Every structure is written in C-alpha cells, then in structure tokens.
C-alpha cells in the first residue's frame, strides 16, 4: 500500500475503533511516549506558543501538548490539528471541541510562513508518501529556532532478541488483535509493512538535516520500540 488515497481511506475506515485498538495494542504506553516528548520540548520555551500537530488523527498528541503546557505553566495561544482523514478528524473534534482542525495532508498545510513555534507529528510521517515535500512544508511554517517533534516506529536491525520479539508481535499478534477490534485486519497488516518501508533513525536524521533542521535529541522509548526526534529549524529553505 503506497497510494496516499488508499492510506487515508484506511484510516477513515478504522477511525471509530482507533483509540481502543491503540490502547490495547500498546498496553497504554503510547500516552507516556507522547507526554515525554512534549515535556522535553516545552523546556525550551518561556512565552506563549503556536503549535501545529500534523497527522493529528484522533487528537491524542494535542491532548499531550495541552497537559504538558499546563504542567510547565505555559500558555498555548493556538494549537491546530491537521489530518487528511475526515473520520479521524471527526473523533478528534468530539474529544477536543475547542481546537481548530484542518483537513489537509502534511505536504500542503494551509498555515502561514514562519508562524509556528512547534510542529509535531506522532506516528504519522511513515504514512506520508510525499515525505520530502512534507519536511519542506514543516520548515516553511516553523519560525527559525522553532522545533519539529517526530515520534515514529523506525526500521530496525533484525538481529537480537528484542528485535525478534518486536517483529513477532508486529507480524503475528498485532494484526490479529487489531483486526478483531477494527474488523479490518488489512489495516493492521499495513502497520509492520509501513515500518519496514520507512527509514532507520540515521537515514531519517539525514533527511531532516537536508531540509533545514539541526538534530537536537534522538531518543528511543521502551527498548527502542518508538523513537523520538527533536529537531530545530536553523534556516529557511
Ligand atoms: C497512526 S495515525 C497517528 C495519529 C495520531 N498522531 C496519534 O499519535 O495517535 C496516522 C495518521 O496519519 C494520517 N495521515 C495519513 N497520510 C497523511 C498525510 N499525507 N499527511 C498527514 N497525515 C496523514 C492518518 O489519517 C492518520 O490519522
């Protein structure tokens, strides 16, 4: 599955059960990956913030930004959720009626130039077919000195016990459980395939650097199941 419309349609189909499946399949740990990333980035800010959360899905990263900002005593002036899936956005709007959402792809967000302090994308960049254009778009909307935060499952070395356990879980257990909850096994077979079709951490860092970003932190969570990339926009490209 590489066709962007097919990927978006798949998220439309699983949207009603996405949150439930996510919680079960990640044993609830995904919430801590999002909040750790938000806590870390917000340490760099003192003033009010404009944040764009791309591939926002059902809005969990937006919830994480809001609670981390509250903890850090920071004011979010505006937070915008962006996603091309109507149905994922429908769930997000029900959970976060006070937020603004835009139905758009990562490579063509209708946000103004140099306006965002933070752009985040959690478990979304893997699904973006026009990835280079999207990274250029993140650079365009961020202020110089602003931060890009990416959470993703990156491609891994297949050797080692942890890698073998992760692969077994992703290929054999996750599609069955995800398929049962969503009644769409194909969507959950797509997940391991999309991870294998993505980059490893070093390759992704090079792409970020090629698009005007300086790498600040790369950190693995939960035995490197999930990887966080924090990068700073150093120049307009
Ligand atoms: C795995 S979900 C992640 C949702 C949310 N960020 C989270 O952490 O739970 C991936 C999201 O990427 C979105 N997506 C797919 N293609 C996209 C694109 N080209 N640009 C932006 N978002 C896209 C999907 O609609 C879906 O909501």
TrEMBL record:
Keywords from the named record: Menaquinone biosynthesis, Methyltransferase, S-adenosyl-L-methionine, Transferase
Entry-linked PROSITE patterns: SAM_MT_UBIE, UBIE_1, UBIE_2
PANTHER family tied to this protein: 2-METHOXY-6-POLYPRENYL-1,4-BENZOQUINOL METHYLASE, MITOCHONDRIAL, METHYLTRANSFERASE
Pathway in which the depicted protein is active: Quinol/quinone metabolism; menaquinone biosynthesis; menaquinol from 1,4-dihydroxy-2-naphthoate: step 2/2
Native source species: Campylobacter vicugnae
Family according to the record: Belongs to the class I-like SAM-binding methyltransferase superfamily. MenG/UbiE family.
Pfam families documented for this protein: Ubie_methyltran
GO aspect biological process, one term: methylation
Binding site for S-adenosyl-L-methionine: 58, 83, 122
Keyword S-adenosyl-L-methionine listed: yes
Keyword Transferase: yes
InterPro entries hit by this protein: SAM-dependent_MTases_sf, UbiE/COQ5_MeTrFase, UbiE/COQ5_MeTrFase_CS
Record field: catalytic activity: a 2-demethylmenaquinol + S-adenosyl-L-methionine = a menaquinol + S-adenosyl-L-homocysteine + H(+)
Molecular functions (GO terms): 2-methoxy-6-polyprenyl-1,4-benzoquinol methyltransferase activity; demethylmenaquinone methyltransferase activity
Entry protein name: Demethylmenaquinone methyltransferase
EC number: 2.1.1.163
CDD domains: AdoMet_MTases
Function text: Methyltransferase required for the conversion of demethylmenaquinol (DMKH2) to menaquinol (MKH2).
